[in-house]
């Protein structure tokens, strides 16, 4: 009986999720589920493209090993406080595309940046 590729993806994703933060070796996923390696690799690639899985390559005892981790979404809202950077002059700079370390226009030579830094330091100590 042939298994639909989306079912294979679901099975693989569940197996990767089960592994938790330790992850699971890519070479084990297909073997544990009884899925041929090439099919497992295709499904894993799709999961990675969808952003559901990330992989990390490492060398263990001279052998390359690929470990897969499930990317878990959270419902926890992430709040970022931008107060400390809201007046950074770069956000409204007309030459930001030409500004680069070591070039004629750079953060090191920028009067607006220097002024903003000085004012920021004075605000933080004052
Ligand atoms: S450092 Fe100065 S020149 Fe460079 S992007 Fe920021 S404001 Fe613009």
Explain the overall architecture:
This protein has 126 residues and is of the alpha+beta class. It folds into 2 domains: 5-70, Arc Repressor Mutant, subunit A (Orthogonal Bundle), CATH 1.10.10; 89-125, no CATH class. It has 4 helices and 3 strands. It has helices spanning 5-19, 26-33, 37-49, 111-125, and strands at 24-25, 53-60, 63-70. The protein has a 3-stranded antiparallel sheet with strand order 1-3-2. β2 (53-60) and β3 form a beta hairpin. α1 (5-19) packs across α3 and α2 packs across α3. The protein is elongated and about 65 Å long. Bound molecules: iron/sulfur cluster. Iron/sulfur cluster (SF4) binds at residues 89-90, 93, 95-96, 99, 105, 107, 110, 112-113.
Number of helices: 4
Backbone structural class:
alpha+beta
Strand content range: 5-15%
CATH superfamily of the largest domain: Winged helix-like DNA-binding domain superfamily/Winged helix DNA-binding domain
| CATH class call of the largest domain | Mainly Alpha
Report the C-alpha radius of gyration, rounded: 24 Å
Please state the second-level CATH architecture of the largest domain.
Answer: Orthogonal Bundle
How would you sum up the global shape?
elongated
Question: Do you know the CATH topology of the largest domain?
Answer: Arc Repressor Mutant, subunit A
Number of strands: 3
Unreliable segments (pLDDT under 50, ≥5 consecutive)?
Answer: none
User: Within the largest sheet, what's the order of strands?
Assistant: 1-3-2
Name the average pLDDT.
Answer: 88
The tally of domains stands at: 2
- Which molecules are bound in this entry? iron/sulfur cluster
Q: Report the span from N to C terminus.
A: 74 Å
Helix content: 40-55%
């Amino acid at each position: 009986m042939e298994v639909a590729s989306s079912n294979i993806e679901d099975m693989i994703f569940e197996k990767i999720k089960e592994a938790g933060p330790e992850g699971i070796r890519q070479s084990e996923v297909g073997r544990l589920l009884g899925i041929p390696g090439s099919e497992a690799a295709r499904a894993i690639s799709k999961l990675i493209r969808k952003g559901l899985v990330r992989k990390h390559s490492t060398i263990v005892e001279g052998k390359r090993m690929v470990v897969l981790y499930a990317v878990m979404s959270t419902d926890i809202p992430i709040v970022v406080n931008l107060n400390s950077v809201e007046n950074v002059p770069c956000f409204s700079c007309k030459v930001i595309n030409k500004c680069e370390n070591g070039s004629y226009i750079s953060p090191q030579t920028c009067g607006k940046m220097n002024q903003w830094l000085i004012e920021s330091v004075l605000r933080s100590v004052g």
